[in-house]
């Protein structure tokens, strides 16, 4: 078992390592071992919506303005569905999800956003948490008629994030459970102001998804409290930061040094016996 007082900076990961939590790993094994039951489409949307929005660690406003809710296979599905519909004529800001760069999308500097071209933005952002320039993003998009679509993948493991979705330029947002080391069963929801037709809509409305995915999602939501990560690991993260002279971020398994370099403690948290 690793002891916090023996840790060195070199023990931390410079690449993302999601928390290897013993409780969540036990749930995964139990899921495969035990008989499971299906959950109806509307029942899952109701359960998942309540779970995602029930956070006590963050403030989410204006979600009631997005009545169209679809089941998605994680936030990358949400991104791919929208980008495919737009034929990848989209724009992103700096320090975004690396997937965009892999698909050949270069970031655009704030102030140089293209009028009328949709913006996909991670909020919270893995590097910043709350984007310090968010009010400027909203203002520029409003002035240039740019629709905003928000990837909230990091929200499930975050604290101290405040998002008011009720801005006229925000058209949709999505959340998933993947950051709880549940990438093996990618499940989430997309909320939209108005019903649009894309692969997310088609797969969800016609129930063309694998029902094992929603059954597993419901199983996990019943057994993982919404703010589980910070509730369990907040003291350990605080001690790690004190030991190594680091700063906490909005995420329980990411910390940073005074120069702003990020380190992941996810692997270590699973070894500390917390």
Account of the protein in words:
Helix content is about 35%, strand content about 15%. By secondary structure, it is α/β, with parallel strands linked by helices. The protein folds into two domains: about 5-25 and about 225-270, no CATH class; about 35-225, 3-Layer(aba) Sandwich (Aspartate Aminotransferase, domain 2). The strands form three sheets. The chain has a five-stranded mixed sheet with strand order 2-7-6-4-3. Strand 8 (about 245-250) and strand 9 (about 255) form a beta hairpin. Helix 2 (about 40-55) runs parallel beside helix 7. It is globular and about 55 Å long. The N and C termini lie close together (about 10 Å). The model has no long low-confidence stretch (mean pLDDT about 95).
Helices and strands in order:
Blueprint: H1 22-33, H2 41-53, E1 59-61, E2 68-72, H3 75-85, H4 98-102, E3 119-122, H5 134-144, E4 148-151, E5 162-164, E6 170-176, E7 188-192, H6 199-205, H7 211-223, H8 228-244, E8 247-248, E9 254-256, E10 262-264, H9 266-269
Parallel strand pairs: 1-5, 3-4, 4-6
Antiparallel strand pairs: 2-7, 6-7, 8-9, 9-10
Helix pairs in contact: 2-7
């Amino acid at each position: 078992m690793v002891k916090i007082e023996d840790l060195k900076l070199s023990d931390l990961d410079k690449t993302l390592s999601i928390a290897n939590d013993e409780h969540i790993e036990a749930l995964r094994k139990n899921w495969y071992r035990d008989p499971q039951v299906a959950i109806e489409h509307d029942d899952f949307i109701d359960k998942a919506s309540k779970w995602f929005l029930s956070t006590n660690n963050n403030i989410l406003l204006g979600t009631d303005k997005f009545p169209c809710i679809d089941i998605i296979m994680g936030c990358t599905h949400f991104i791919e569905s929208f980008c495919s519909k737009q034929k990848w004529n989209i724009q992103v800001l700096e320090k975004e999800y690396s997937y965009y760069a892999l698909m050949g999308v270069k970031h655009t500097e704030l102030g140089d956003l293209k009028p009328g071209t949709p913006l996909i933005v991670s909020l919270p952002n893995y590097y910043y948490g709350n984007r310090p320039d968010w009010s400027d993003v909203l203002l520029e998009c409003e002035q240039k008629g740019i629709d905003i679509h928000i990837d909230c993948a990091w929200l499930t493991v975050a604290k101290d994030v405040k998002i008011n979705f009720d801005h006229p330029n925000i058209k949709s947002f999505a959340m998933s459970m993947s950051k709880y080391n549940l990438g093996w069963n990618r499940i989430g929801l997309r909320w939209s102001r108005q019903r649009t037709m894309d692969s997310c809509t088609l797969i969800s409305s016609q129930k063309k998804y694998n029902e094992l995915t929603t059954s597993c999602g419901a199983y996990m939501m019943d057994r993982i409290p919404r703010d589980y990560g910070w509730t369990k690991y907040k003291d350990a993260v605080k001690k790690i930061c004190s030991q190594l002279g680091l700063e906490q971020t909005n995420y329980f398994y990411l910390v940073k040094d005074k120069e702003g370099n990020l380190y992941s403690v996810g692997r270590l948290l699973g070894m500390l016996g917390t």
